[in-house]
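Q: Here's a chain of 349 amino acids. Please give me its 3D structure as C-alpha cells.
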Amino acid sequence: MPLPDVDRYRPEDRRAVDALYRRVFGNDAADASRLRWEWQYRRNPNNPGGEPEIWIAREGRAIIGQYATMPVRLDVKGREVRGSWGMDVMVAPERQRRGLGEVLFRTWDRNVGASLGLGLSDASYRLFQKLGWPDVGPVPCLVKPLTRRAFRHPRWPMPINRLISAVTWPFVVIIARARPLRAEVRMVQRFDDSFTRLWEKLAGKFDLAVRRDAAYLNWKFVGAPHVRYSLAALLREGQTAGYAVYRHLHEPRGRVTLLVDFLADPEDEEGFETLLRWVDREARHEDSDKIRAFAMHAGFRHLMRRSGYFQVKSTMEFVVKVNGADVAPDFYEHTDAWHVTLGDSDQDR
C-alpha cells in the first residue's frame, strides 16, 4: 500500500483534524484540546507566521494522521537553533500499525533544527528508540514532603497510609521546617523585559535549554487559557535575578504544589534557595502536602536536595535530536548542564 502524502496544516483542515482527534482520543480530550488550540498553535511567539506547525497525513481528501508540534528557540552550547517539541500525534484507527507514525516523525525531524520529545507515551517512546533518537533518560523528579499526608498513595489501603504517615512524620517535621528568605522575592503578574535580559545573561550557563525570554514566558505561563500560574521574581539590588512558576492542585489522597518552571544562576545558591523557600511558604499557605518538581540540571537538583527535596521515580521520558548545530559525539551523554523542567513542552495540562 503506497504511503500517504504528508504536508503542513492548512486552515481548511481544522474541522477534519478536530473530528480525527475526537475519534482517537475521545470527547473529553478533544474538548480540552479545542480550549487550548488557538493559544497553543497560533499565539506562540516562536511561530511568527501564525500558522500551526502541524504535519498532516492525507489519503486523497481524507486526513488520516497528524503530528502537532510546539516551535521553540533552543540554545545549544551557545548557539540558537530552531527546534520544536513533538506533542499530539494521532493516526486514524484503521490506519494504525502501517508505518504512518514513522513517516510523520521523520517528516517533522527533517524540517527542524532540533526535534524534542517529553513525557512520551509508551508507543511514541518505542518509536523514537526504533528511529535512533538519542535517549537521554527521564527528567528527574523531586519531591519535598510538607505534611504527614505527603507519603500517602492512592492505591494503598487507608490503614497502610496511616502507618506510613506515622512512621515518616518525624522525618517530615525536620525537612519541612520553615526557613527565612535570604533575598527579596516579589509576586508579578507578567514578565517584563528584565526577564529577557536575565535570560541573555544566563543562557551561557546551560548546554541545552529553551530560550526563556519575556515573550515566551508570557505566552507560556500568563496567556495559557486552561491553567492559572503564580509567578514569583527574585530581586537583587532591584534587578531581576530569577523566577519561579508554580501552581496548587488536588490529587487523590492529597494536595500538591507543582514547581512548574524556574530560572536563576545555578551558581547563585542563596538566590535559588530563596526561591525554593518562597515556594515552600506558598505551599504551606495553600495547605499542600508536598511540592513536586522536575529538574534536569545537576546544580539545581543539588540545591533542591539540600533544601529537603528527594528524588523519586520519574516517568517523564525525554528525547532530543539536534540537527541544526554540530555537537560532539558525547553531547547526549553529559546532561548535567541541561535545563529542562515540567514547564517545557505541553506537559502541564
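Q: Can you summarize the key feature?
A: The radius of gyration is 21 Å.
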